[in-house]
Amino acid sequence: MAAFSLTVNGKKHEVNVDPETPVLWVLRDHLDLVGTKYGCGIAQCGACTIHLDGRAMRSCVLPVSSVGEQKITTIEGLSKNGDHPIQKAWLEHDVPQCGYCQAGQIMNAAAFLEENPDPTDEQIEEAMNGNICRCGTYLRIKAAIKTAAQINS
Amino acid sequence: MTLVKNTIDRRSFLKVSALAGGGMMLSFSWLAGCKPTAEELLTLPKEWFELNSYIKIGENGVVTLMSPNPEFGSNVKTSMPMILADELDVDWKNVIVQQADFFPERFNRQFTGGSQGIRQGWKPLRTAGATARQMLKNAAAQTWNVPANEITTEAGVLFHKTSGKQAGYGAMASIAAKLEVPKDVPVKEIKDFKVIGNSKKNVEGANIVTGKPLFTMDYKQEGMLIAMIVHPPAFGLKVKSVNDAAARAMPGIKDVFVIQTLADDYERNGFDTTTFTELVVVAGTSTWEVLNAKKSVQVEWEKITDKNVVVAGWGGKQTVTIPAGLESTLTHNAMMAELSKKPASVLRRDGNPEAAFKKAAKVLERTYSAPFLAHNCMEPVNCFAHVTSDKAEIRGPIQAPEFIMQTLSARLGMPREKISIKLERMGGGFGQRAYGHHLVEAAVISQKLNAPVKMMYTREDDMTYGIYRPTYTATYRAALDENNNLVAFHVKGGGVPEHAVHANRFPAGAVDNYLAEGWQINSNITIGAFRAPRSNFIAGAEQSFLDELAELAGKDPIDFRLELLQRAKDKPVGENNDYDADRYAGVLKLVREKSNWGTQAGNRGVAAYFCHNTYVAEVVDLEMKNNQPIVQKVVAAVDCGIVINPDAAVNMGEGGIVDGIGNALFGELTFVDGVPEKNNFHQYRMIRQKEAPKAIEVHFVKNEHEPTGLGEPLFPPVFAAVANALYKAKGKRYYQQPFLKEDISLG
Ligand code: FES
Ligand code: FES
Predict the structure, then answer these.
(1) Which residue of A19, B482, B551, B607 is 20 to 30 Å from B534, comparing CA positions?
(2) Whose CA is nearest to atom 3 of ligand 2?
(3) pLDDT, tens digit, 9 for 90 and up, residues B475-534
(4) Residues B15 and B144 placed together within one structural domain of the fold
């Protein structure tokens, strides 16, 4: 056990956990932030995607001890009122089916659009290829990202 | 009917939301965010008046509609209340949708599966809406002292035209709630639908995109422990002994023990499918600690012996043998090849197939096969249970709560009235969650620990636990006469542990001489419903075969099918033909038109299938890029009768198509000595963004047939449409799923 100080969604939190604990479980079990999902635990599905200083990261393989000063953003903190352009576009395209993969999809898409505000279809496909959706909402995800890019510009 | 008056003030509303934990109790269709603002709270009524199980109206006209069925992503939580709202005649923006708990005395058929939710909910929901509307009219008639049949409604307002009187539903709700419930209230004319047929957004959309705790996996309660299971690494093994010393000593671990979920002599129900009745359980305070401890539990396994269990299913009681043995895919395949050559049980015979084959000008015979598939719902199996001495509270991702209630009750030694099941949103279902073994597991664990428990599987547990789509094979034989007419058709199908032949489906009824046979091989690998069970294999096989047969007959594949359907309509063979030839032909004609079939070039494949009461035809266009197939476009034509929520219906269709392409190209689970050869997504290839079709169009046949489901029917035919398009691209037929395994590079 060790104490860690984390900045999550702009707030400071102290946790006392095993240094190896993946950020995913710190968020879900210790900070009550359960929007970030567990899908595979081995960085293969993207359900657990968060932002670390704005970059998309798989929180299921990210030990809490490696976070340091970096700021964590989760789906709960992506926007204050659920009105990030990606969230708005997601609602406009009514993307989700079961919804389980969607927090990860949204977090990945939001970080990607920051880096590439005007992406081509191929770039979207490449960037989003790590996020599995068993329900098969891929087309709507792509369409929503394009809409969000327009909202942004 | 009992009339319950529920008072809900601002404070209690907030309490309700906070208590809900596992999911917002109330979904506000008019809220973009999740927390209601002060202004929105003011719009909440002070008092609710219940008109029936499905409908509550507040004194200010706000309406709560209960969504009866569990939600796994097919959007019934939006579409079922839409049916209520239309018959009740209320403005959708004044509607709050609430998920019903499992309450069979109050709600009709709380089962999401078999694409039956909308089909079977249609009448009860319409009746509930129309009856409540009539009660409001009666209340107004009584209040205004006018005949009820002179009262009209519009968007939540009652009118009496001649006297000029009007009142909102809210003003009449308290009176209506006390009235007798009228019988045989007529429902609307289809032409008068206002909500049905007009797309409404998913009522949970805002909650999903902001990461609200909607799933059982997200549920938490004071004092709750986390439990995980260790199950045998192979089918055919069971626990011999456990050394839990190391695990027990690890931080955060409360207990390690073995549970037996079902006694050996327990008479099982049809949906009690459970692979491993003995499980090692590790319980502790946090997920990470339990995960680590689980790895250090040492278990010695031993082989099972043949076990007979009694299963009560729809067809009555049966004794089923769970065979001993460590099974392998290679052995399965060899046995299947052998049995394919032997005669099997005759499921249907028309005419004289043997004689017709002898006389044929041309005979085509082909064999198709497909592997076991794992469900891989994105939310791994999990369940919350809190069992105390006098009651059990269960929350879980469960499609069919009714099917597991009896077993829960028997296993906990508690009458079913003491057991409550909350229907949490499921992170996928696809049939896997029709089987409630996880509810029993969680309940038994909670009972043993005497604490609230969330039991969760890791992805590895989920993928290796069973309840798979079976492995199948089917051999098709067809005879053409000298004019290339189909004169005989023979299908023989088998699988482990079931075959996939539907003897009375097309082309039965369209061929004079027809034979369907089936055989099966018993197994200890558990199987279960998987998005369009059986159809998900046999459609691909049959529709690939018909494509090849059309080619042999020198006919266009759509024309060839239409000819057969015309025959089935004009002069059907046999009596139990399980399809409507006109509606079947209808989707083929629609897909022909919408895909520009016959005029547009490219690697195109077509397939059509009827299952789960819905007709579907699909055209797939694909291109090869670096020797990989890229699906450019899929055009689907669907006849599911009246479409409730068009955009959501399209979404569901897209999902079925994407999922089908993924499973056709990549889906596979194989076994060596009882051990599944894949246990997570680094090995199990799922379709991803790059492999998804670039475009999908879903077109609906417009008619006034009662609505049927969409969760499954678009899935099966796409396997064949892909195979037939691949043939165009590669000049080679694909008989074995997954197609990308048959010829890795497709080179
Ligand atoms: S849970 Fe982290 S990538 Fe799957
Ligand atoms: S919406 Fe269900 S897994 Fe993506």
Answers:
(1) B551
(2) A133
(3) 999 999 999 999 999 999 999 999 999 999 999 999 999 999 999 999 999 999 999 999
(4) yes
Contacts of B493 (CB under 8 A, 6+ apart): B472, B473, B474, B475, B499, B500, B501, B516, B517, B518, B519, B538, B541
Q: Looking at the structure, do residues B534 and B676 belong to the same domain, yes or no?
A: yes
Q: What are the pLDDT digits (tens) for A104-152?
A: 999 999 999 999 999 999 999 999 999 999 999 999 999 999 999 998 7
DSSP class of residue B664 equals H
Report the pLDDT value the prediction gives residue B472, as an integer from 0 to 100: 98
Which of B455, B689, B694, B710 should be substituted to probe chain A, the one whose Cβ sees the most A Cβ atoms within 10 Å? B689
Residue of chain A nearest B74, judged by CA positions: A97
Residue B607 lies in a domain: yes
Are A139 and B654 inside 8 Å of each other by CB?
yes
Residue B323 domain-assigned (yes or no): no
Beta bridge partners of B420: B393
Q: Which ranges in B480-621 belong to alpha helices (H)? A: 535-552, 557-570, 581-594
The residue segments making up the domain with residue B262 are: 218-308+378-464
pLDDT of residue B41: 52
User: Which residues on adjacent β-strands are paired with residue A71?
Assistant: A7
In a domain, B318, yes or no: no
pLDDT surpassing 80 at residue B344: yes
Instruction: Identify whether residues B435 and B489 lie together within a single domain.
Output: no
The protein residue with its alpha carbon nearest to ligand 2, atom 4, reads A133
Distance B655 CA to ligand 2 centre (A): 9
Which CATH number describes the domain made up of A2-77? 3.10.20.30
Q: Which of B75, B379, B689 lies closest to A125 in CB terms?
A: B689
| Residue B425 to residue A28, Cβ atoms within 8 A | no
CA separation for the pair B170, B61 (Å, rounded): 4
B243 located within any domain: yes
Query: Six-digit token pair at B206?
Result: 């805002």
- Name the residue of chain B whose CA is nearest to A41's CA: B459
What does R_g of chain B's alpha carbons equal in angstroms?
28
- Predicted pLDDT of residue A42: 98
Look at the block and give the residue holding tokens 């690890």.
B250
The total number of structural domains that make up chain B? 3
Residue B40: predicted pLDDT: 52
CA atoms within 13 A on the CB side of A1: 8
Rounded to two decimals, the ipTM of the complex is 0.99
Residues 30-89 of A with CB under 8 A from B: 30, 32-42, 44-45, 47, 74-76, 78, 81-83, 87
Tokens coding B437:
């073994």
Mean pLDDT across chain B, nearest whole number?
A: 92
Whether residue B378 and residue A39 make contact (CB cut-off 8 A), yes or no, is yes
Name the strand (E) or helix (H) holding B519: strand B513-520
Chain B residue with the nearest C-alpha to that of A127? B689
pLDDT given for residue B116 in this prediction: 79
User: Which range among B98-107, B455-464, B596-605, B736-745 shows the weakest confidence by mean pLDDT?
Assistant: B736-745
Q: Does B692 touch chain A (CB under 8 A)?
A: yes
| Whole-angstrom distance, CA of residue B535 vs CA of residue B526 | 18
pLDDT (tens digit, 9 = 90+) per residue, B610-662? 999 999 999 999 999 988 999 999 999 999 999 999 999 999 999 999 999 99
A-contacting residues in B 478-497 (Cβ below 8 Å): none
Our CA-based measurement puts residue B250 at a distance from the nearest CA of chain A, in whole angstroms, of 12
Query: B226 and B259 in contact (C-beta within 8 Å)?
Result: no
Q: How many residues does chain A have?
A: 153
Say yes or no: CB of residue A137 within 6 Å of ligand 2. Answer: yes
The whole-number average pLDDT for the span B36-56 is 77
Residues in chain B: 747
Q: Given 3-state DSSP classes, what are the helix, strand and coil percentages for chain B, each rounded to the nearest 5? A: 30, 25, 40
Q: Model pTM?
A: 0.94
**CATH number listed for the domain at residues A85-152:** 1.10.150.120
B205 pocket-lining for ligand 2 (C-beta < 6 Å): no
How far apart CA A72 and CA A52 sit, in angstroms, is: 5
